[in-house]
Amino acid sequence: MTGAETPQILLVEDNNADIVLVREALEEHVVRCELTVITSGERAISFINEIDSGVQICPNLVIVDLNLPKKSGKDVLKRMRMSDRCASVPVIVLTSSDNQKDKDDVAVFSPAGYFRKPSRLEEFLRLGAVFKQAANSGTAGSN
Known about the structure:
single chain, alpha/beta, 16% strand
């Protein structure tokens, strides 16, 4: 990616309040990006299929919730890792689940980070730095 290209971020999240908070976190850390929001796991998988068929471009970062309608975030992550075009794109899991089984289930797909959705606004906004780093360099972390 050259410096002139705008990073593409795919957010797969069905909760409108969390969508707003992710946007605010990105703005707080001056992440200049094109944000695509998809609100169901089924639609996200279709989007990945469109990437593989050349209809859509591969994002620089995917942020996915685990609890989605129609297909789970785990299903989205699994499909992402099977993608011909963007299997290595960093995926950050941003979820309300702090369940160890959920963490273990997604660990096999090597997410760039696993974060429980913070309950405090300041903590949520701090995630913007993680998103920025991951979108620009392909690394994140875990919490």
